[in-house]
Design brief:
Blueprint (H helix, E strand, L loop, with lengths): L6 E6 L5 E2 L2 E2 L2 H17 L4 E4 L12 H11 L4 E4 L2 E2 L5 H14 L6 E4 L6 H4 L7 H17 L3 E3 L7 E4 L12 E5 L3 H9 L4 E4 L9 H13 L7 E9 L3 H23 L6 H10 L2 E4 L1 H15 L3 E6 L10 E3 L6
Parallel strand pairs: 1-4, 1-14, 4-5, 6-7, 7-10, 10-11, 11-12, 12-13, 12-14
Antiparallel strand pairs: 2-3, 8-9, 12-15
């Protein structure tokens, strides 16, 4: 893979930030996120993305608004989502938001669509979790139709029909780059291939190379559906510091309580120190000095045929040296 074909970016989930022992307000955290995007651009990164969550400790519930703020503070870096929960978004509203973002940013908008690993948005917006699959499938079809067709006539079971509808502002011809986020389901991999969309692998634990079978499935399915090869990206957790030791000790203080909470909530493994160090040595954590993290990114990118890597950034104020905590993914 040529260097020009590879992208590096950062993701943010809008976690509430800290400044020493002080917990920042939600408003301060939102402004810090914009500052981080500005710093990412100045460092030469290719993409800055924001997630979508509706739970305590996160401030990324209005992702397009945040990205629009970032667009006015930057000039070059591409702006996207680490995941947009399509199942509980309206595709028409989503189209308007991202066509507007694309206009404001002069063509820098992109989006990763997912079914959601956290489900708080379902009761919040009045959706039934039992409709998980049908919601995503129908809304994906409509969102893609809105990007590709003008006018659009559509009918389904999850929202009111459209009859020769034209939306404004219009996206550029063909729409914006649209990825499918996958947490491990082969059906999701095949869905991305069926629509000819780029694949974003969310890998937050275990050896990244275990997803090699998903990559093989994706490339075979693309060929069978008659599509050309599409970019493959990875989203993981990480922290870059001046030395390996500094990165390992700093990230442990933030990683351990988060994984402990997830373990209690979802039945994940308990975050002991041995498991943590194993995740750094050969698992999904990209933690270390610039040289260490770069070598690991290069290895995983080669093994999984990645074109984009985005680490997820956790907020600190003032911002730490290096990238903070973001997920590595590989670029177009």
């Amino acid at each position: 893979m040529a260097a020009a074909d590879f992208e590096l970016g950062l993701n943010s989930f809008g976690e509430v930030a800290t400044d020493g022992d002080r917990v920042l307000s939600d408003a301060e955290t939102v402004r810090l996120l914009v500052d981080e995007a500005r710093l990412a651009e100045s460092a030469g990164l290719d993409v800055f993305s924001v997630g979508e969550h509706y739970r305590e400790g996160h401030n990324d519930s209005a992702t397009p608004v945040l990205l629009a703020a970032v667009a006015t503070a930057t000039e070059r870096i591409r702006l996207g989502t680490s995941v947009t929960v399509l199942s509980t978004n309206d595709p028409v509203r989503l189209y308007h938001e991202f066509s507007t973002l694309d206009a404001v940013s002069d063509g820098r908008a992109q989006i990763v669509l997912g079914r959601a690993s956290a489900t708080e948005s379902f009761p919040l917006f009045g959706y039934d979790l039992a409709d998980y699959e049908r919601l995503f499938e129908e809304k994906l079809e409509l969102f893609l139709r809105l990007q590709q067709d003008e006018p659009v006539t559509w009918s389904g079971t999850v929202r009111s029909p459209l009859a020769a509808q034209r939306l404004h502002p219009r996206m550029q011809p063909g729409g914006i780059p649209t990825w499918i986020g996958v947490g491990g389901s082969p059906n999701s991999v095949i869905r991305a291939a069926r629509h000819g969309l780029p694949l974003m692998l969310a890998i937050i634990g275990g050896r990244p190379q275990r997803f090699a079978g998903h990559v093989d499935l994706y490339t075979r399915a693309l060929e069978q559906f008659g599509h050309t090869l599409q970019p493959i990206g990875q989203h993981s957790l990480g922290l870059v510091a001046d030395t390996d030791e500094e990165a390992v000790e700093t990230w442990w203080r933030y990683w351990q309580p988060v994984v402990a909470a997830l373990a209690a909530e979802r039945g994940f493994y308990k975050p002991d120190r041995a498991r943590y160090e194993a995740e750094i040595d050969h698992g999904a954590l990209f933690v270390g000095s610039p040289e260490t993290v770069a070598q690991k990114i290069a290895t995983v990118a080669r093994d999984l045929r990645l074109s984009r890597v985005r680490p997820e950034v956790r907020h600190h104020a003032p911002a730490p040296r290096g990238t903070g905590a973001h997920h590595p993914t590989a670029g177009q």
